[in-house]
Amino acid sequence: STKKPLVIVTRKLPEIIETRMMELYDCRLNLDDHAWSQDELLAAVKEADVLVPTVTDRIDRQIIEAAGPQLKLIASFGTGVDHIDFQACKAKGIMVTNTPDVLTEDTADMTMALILAVPRRLAEGERLVRTGKWQGWSPTGMLGHRIWGKRLGIIGMGRIGTAVARRAKGFGLSIHYHNRNRVHEGLEEELEATYWSSLDQMIAHMDILSINCPHTPATYHLLNSRRLGLMKPHAYIVNTSRGEVIDETALLKALQNRDIAGAGLDVFESEPKINPKLLKLENAVLLPHMGSATIEGRVAMGEKVIINIRTVMDGHNPPDRVIDMMF
Ligand code: 8YV
């Protein structure tokens, strides 16, 4: 019988996925689930036929150039591929796949949770109860801002942005979006969505902004201090995409100065490191990159990874081949 391909998985995955992978492949797993160092990644790509990294692995040019000639596929466990140097992979003929679609709805749910949590001060209220400081109900206690009737501006109207829009519409928000391309007419009609070709113009008119675009060279610090300065002082921003899309230092300043009303962040520029000054802000809801963290979603992501590996190993085009990084 022919030798099974060596599949190296950088992080602990759901057990059902690991079991299946071990049945199919010569599989090396990361049993203690620590995030690998550059040296551990270098050692892995020297041997692996298939590498299964996650968002916590920086698959940069140095790693790709050190890869052995046997490395065929990087089957990333996740949708965002900004941690992979795609050009370097392309130059070496290494295929890249990701796991889109299966985490769209979960991430949109978490985005909606932040859209509700920040203006309604959910986390602050919870802290008040937990710290024993709640004095009882009062007509003016814990007042936030209502969200229904307000304008939501979605930056990046792809799969997740669209799923956020559907939810937000149900909560009575009006939907606005900025995207490189206008979405099709039927979708705009369904969502009663307004397209803004100018991001600056949209930002200036929104009550809540939601970041749902990928992190690419074109979206790095898309929300810089100038653009944050265009936001209305009572406006909120939520980010379930990538920390790098917002200039975090500029955001911190805007929040500290109350130039904007609040932020809900599931992702950070140097996660898991968090600027300690962010932790001091009552008007920020901070989550540990858990937008897609459901048991069902993780299993579905693992199934996608397996299908991608299998199709490539069988000599076919995988369903989730990443064609270009510049989306
Ligand atoms: C995952 C994510 O936690 O898929 C993404 O792009 O950011 C998250 O859903 C991560 O990718 C796992 O690798």
Question: In order across it, which strands form the biggest sheet?
Answer: 8-7-6-9-10-11-12
Q: What structural class results from the helix and strand content?
A: alpha/beta
Spell out the helices and strands N to C: EHEHEHEHEHHEHEHEHEHEHEHEH
Task: Tell me, rounded to a whole number, the average pLDDT.
Answer: 97
What is the second-level CATH architecture of the largest domain? 3-Layer(aba) Sandwich
Q: Helix amount, in percent? A: 25-40%
Return residue spans where pLDDT drops below 50 for at least 5 consecutive residues.
none
User: Which value, in Å, is the CA radius of gyration?
Assistant: 21 Å
User: What is the CATH class designation of the largest domain?
Assistant: Alpha Beta
Give the names of the bound compounds: 2-keto-D-gluconic acid
Shape label: globular
CATH topological fold name of the largest domain: Rossmann fold
CATH homologous superfamily assignment of the largest domain = NAD(P)-binding Rossmann-like Domain
Question: How much strand content do the residues show?
Answer: 5-15%
List the total number of helices. Answer: 13
How many structural domains can be distinguished in the coordinates?
Answer: 2
Domain D-isomer specific 2-hydroxyacid dehydrogenase catalytic: 28-322
Domain D-isomer specific 2-hydroxyacid dehydrogenase NAD-binding: 112-291
Protein name: Lactate dehydrogenase-like 2-hydroxyacid dehydrogenase
InterPro entries: D-isomer_2-hydroxyacid_DH, D-isomer_2_OHA_DH_cat_dom, D-isomer_DH_CS1, D-isomer_DH_NAD-bd, NAD(P)-bd_dom_sf
